[in-house]
TrEMBL record:
InterPro entries tied to this protein: RNA_pol_sigma_r3/r4-like, UPF0122, UPF0122_fam_protein, WH-like_DNA-bd_sf
Pfam families given in the database record: UPF0122
Function field: Might take part in the signal recognition particle (SRP) pathway. This is inferred from the conservation of its genetic proximity to ftsY/ffh. May be a regulatory protein.
Classification of source organism: Bacteria, Bacillati, Bacillota, Bacilli, Bacillales
Entry protein name: UPF0122 protein GCM10007183_01050
Annotated family: Belongs to the UPF0122 family.
Length: 110
């Protein structure tokens, strides 16, 4: 798997975690099987007795939909920023002036 594909898969896994409750059951099933369980399009098509193209179109549209949710709600963006700030806090635990800056930024994310 190419690095870009791996990054996209990781991102879609997170977006799925954050926004799955906003998706239909069919959308959840297709994304879960494709991104989380690494099914091929043909395997998903066989499972649901639909064409490979139908699966591809649904995954593409649903991917666009969760990206749109992310643009509007920013749950993943805030999550990743919090993770960065927690790492920085651990690295600078003995620097009070730097800690205050990170703590303030964390509070602003809430």
């Amino acid at each position: 798997m190419a690095e870009n594909d791996l990054i996209k898969t990781l991102r879609m896994n997170y977006l799925y975690d954050f926004y799955q409750s906003l998706l239909t059951e069919k959308q959840r099933n297709y994304l879960r099987l494709y991104y989380l369980e690494d099914y091929a399009l043909s395997e998903i098509a066989d499972t649901f007795d639909v064409s490979r193209q139908a699966v591809y179109d649904n995954i593409r549209r649903t991917g666009e939909l969760v990206e749109d949710y992310e643009d509007k709600l920013g749950l993943y963006r805030r999550f990743t920023r919090r993770q960065e700030l927690y790492r920085a806090l651990r690295e600078h635990i003995h620097e009070p002036e730097t800690l205050e800056q990170y703590i303030q930024e964390l509070e602003e994310l809430e």
